[in-house]
Each structure stands twice: as structure tokens, then as C-alpha cells.
Design goal:
The protein has 342 residues and is of the alpha/beta class. The protein is built from 12 helices and 12 strands. The strands form 3 sheets. An 8-stranded parallel barrel has the order 1-2-3-6-7-9-11-12, surrounded by 6 helices. A two-stranded antiparallel ribbon has the order 4-5. A two-stranded parallel sheet has the order 8-10.
Length: 342
């Protein structure tokens, strides 16, 4: 069985020691970042090499949201709008916003399928809270739970139609963070009733739509005052699983983020003990990957069953993929050009 971990790699091609490590570690999947991207041919070769190390059709993930979180960009790939663009457009012309979002997500997904990448870490179902840190910012589909739900659903369904499976993030909500979780642990002081009324509904609405999920590294004081959500059995069992109803394959956000303290191996072990199914380690540093791998065993039990369901949906999406219409790019450009007159 594959190990309950997703790993990155250091550069645009696998070094011999990386390939040997990945063959031995047998991670469930892989994730790419901008450091891994140069040209279309190079990315396709890297994706193939990663899958070859484990000898199976392992998922290959990327964060391709549009806006400032876009690992693929010019000159080889187009630049896509951030989520906030569609929120602003939706406020004046919902039909135009929905059409533009479908085209944008479909084209973005087609960029990925052409490279062999089959999982994109979208949608963000985070409801942005006024005054919160820009770590989420314009990446969110706004401040209204109903709008977040509607636009996030359009995005992930448009991706699935072209063969790319989504990851629901950041469970159970990152929109109230007042600090950057890459640098420190955010504390969310909102009471549970407020969270259940505002922050959790988009995740609940999409829980049965997206087979993969990702936690956020935040401390929800009204739920578990001692442990951040990624390491909290209370948050994962009572909120993410029972309350929100997400029964998909749950991965951590990047374990190397500074919001989580302590050795990386301990972070990985605690996250799986808390109820996460997969540990996510992104930076490709060999010493850290070895430490994480040593702390993580093979997928088993309910986690294995969830992985098998997620894999089945991912493969159905790939097999049933329909490319965007041939004029999709021109239609999107025309819609974007109209925005200034709306």
C-alpha cells in the first residue's frame, strides 16, 4: 500500500537520490510548485518520472488558482484572474461572472491535463472575514457564504469536466486568519455558533462534491483551545467529519509551514493520529522528507477506503474529460474585455 503522504521535489527534474528515495518511500502522490516548472515538455517529463518512481497512476497535485497563486504562468501558460475578480463581476452581472468563471476554470484545467497533472488544489471555500490577513485575501470567493458556495462549485465542476479533480480547502475555514499561517499560528476567537452559521456552510455544501480535502493550520479557540485544526481530533472528528460532513480523503496543509511547531516527523504523526488521512510535505528538502516518511505508515483502514474512492473519482474525471470548446480562450478574452463596460 502507498504511504500516507504526498511529497514535492526539489527542482525541474528528479535527481537520482530523489528518485531512489521516492521509490522506497512510495508516497500516495506528489505536488508541484513553481520551482518545478520551466516548459511544457519539461513538466510532462517530470510528471512521468514521478509516477514511474512508484509504478502506478499516482495523483499529481498543483496549486493553480489564478491570480497570485499560479504555479504555471507566462510565457507558456496564460495568466488567469484571481477569485476576487469573479466576485466583483458577480455583484453587477452574475450570469457574466458565472460564464467567465466556467471558461477560466475549464481552460486552466485543460492546461493541467495537457501536462498529466490531474489534481488542482481548488476550490477555496473559505469565507473571507473583513480585516483578515491577505494570506487568503483575493483568493477567496468573497465574504458571503452563499456566493462562496456557488462560485466554488462552478469552479470545481468546470475543472472536473476537463479531467482535473479538486481539493476542498482550507477545512474548516481560513477566512478569519489575522496572520499568515506560513509564518505563525492564527488564532480564531469567533464562537462556535458564528463559525457554524458563516464559515462552515460552504464546506458542508461541497463536502459531497469534492473527493479530496485539505486542512488549514488554525487554532479555533471555541472548539479546541490547545491544538491547531490539523492536529486536533476534536476539529477533525466533530467539525470536519461530523458537522461539515466531509468523508473524503483529508490531507494536511503543508507540514513545513511555521504555524505548526515541533519536529516535522512529530507533526506528521500527530496529524494522522488526529484523523487526517495524508501528510502533505511540499518543499522537496530531502532530510525533511526522510523524517516525515519515517513517521508515516501505509494507508490503511478508513483512510485507504477513502483513497480508493478518491482515486476512482479522479480516474472517472480523467476518462470522461471533455476539452474546452475550441473558441473558449477567445470567448474568455471577449468576456474579460467587456468587464470594463459592465
Amino acid at each position: 500500500m502507498p504511504r500516507a503522504v504526498i511529497f514535492g521535489c526539489a527542482g525541474p527534474a528528479l535527481a537520482a537520490d530523489e528518485a531512489a528515495f521516492l521509490r522506497d518511500a512510495d508516497p500516495y502522490g506528489f505536488i508541484l510548485f513553481k520551482r518545478n516548472v520551466e516548459t511544457p515538455g519539461q513538466v510532462r517529463a517530470l510528471v512521468t518520472a514521478l509516477r514511474d518512481t512508484v509504478g502506478r497512476d499516482a495523483p499529481v497535485l498543483i496549486d493553480q488558482e489564478g491570480g497570485r497563486v499560479q504555479r504555471l504562468g507566462p510565457p507558456h501558460w496564460r495568466r488567469y484572474p484571481a477569485a476576487q475578480f469573479f466576485v466583483r463581476l458577480d455583484a453587477v452581472d452574475p450570469a457574466l461572472a458565472e460564464e467567465a468563471l466556467r471558461l477560466s476554470a475549464g481552460l486552466m484545467g485543460a492546461d493541467l491535463t495537457a501536462l498529466g497533472i490531474d489534481v488542482d488544489c481548488v476550490p477555496l471555500a473559505d469565507v473571507r472575514h473583513p480585516g483578515s490577513h491577505d494570506v487568503i485575501g483575493d483568493r477567496a470567493f468573497g465574504e458571503d457564504p452563499a456566493t462562496v458556495t456557488r462560485l466554488a462549485r462552478i469552479q470545481v465542476e468546470a475543472m472536473a469536466a476537463v479531467g482535473v479533480t479538486g481539493v476542498l480547502k482550507h477545512l474548516p475555514g481560513h477566512g478569519r486568519s489575522m496572520v499568515d499561517s506560513h509564518a505563525e499560528l492564527p488564532r480564531v476567537e469567533a464562537d462556535r455558533a458564528t463559525l457554524e452559521a458563516v464559515d462552515f456552510p460552504p464546506f458542508a455544501a461541497l463536502a459531497g462534491v469534492v473527493p479530496y480535502g485539505m486542512t488549514g493550520h488554525l487554532l479555533f479557540t471555541a472548539i479546541d483551545a490547545d491544538r491547531p485544526s490539523t492536529l486536533s481530533p476534536v476539529v477533525i472528528s466533530e467539525v470536519i467529519r461530523a458537522g461539515i460532513g466531509f468523508d473524503g480523503l483529508l490531507m494536511t496543509d503543508d507540514l513545513s509551514m511555521a504555524a505548526l511547531g515541533g519536529p516535522l516527523g512529530r507533526r506528521a504523526g500527530k496529524s494522522l493520529a488526529a484523523g487526517c488521512d495524508l501528510a502533505l510535505h511540499c518543499n522537496g528538502r530531502m532530510a525533511e522528507m526522510i523524517e516525515v516518511a519515517d513517521a508515516v505508515g501505509p494507508l490503511a483502514g478508513p483512510a485507504l477506503a477513502r483513497a480508493e474512492r478518491a482515486d476512482a473519482e479522479r480516474r472517472r474525471n480523467t476518462a470522461g474529460a471533455t476539452p474546452p470548446p475550441g473558441d473558449a480562450a477567445e470567448r474568455l478574452d471577449a468576456l474579460l474585455a467587456r468587464v470594463g463596460t459592465v
